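Entry 0007
Protein: Cysteine-rich secretory protein 1
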Amino acid sequence: NPCIYYDEYTDCSLEVRFLGCNHSTPRMFCKATCLCDTEIK
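Output (structure tokens):
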């Protein structure tokens, strides 16, 4: 299934790894990485 969200940054996996999804930047710009665990991004 496709993810309804998309990542606005190209390095979201790195951002999320270091800052986590609770930080404002990844939460705002990396929604697919944070919210879609099993869906296709």
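Curator remark: The two ends are 9 Å apart (CA to CA). The chain is about 45% helix and 0% strand.
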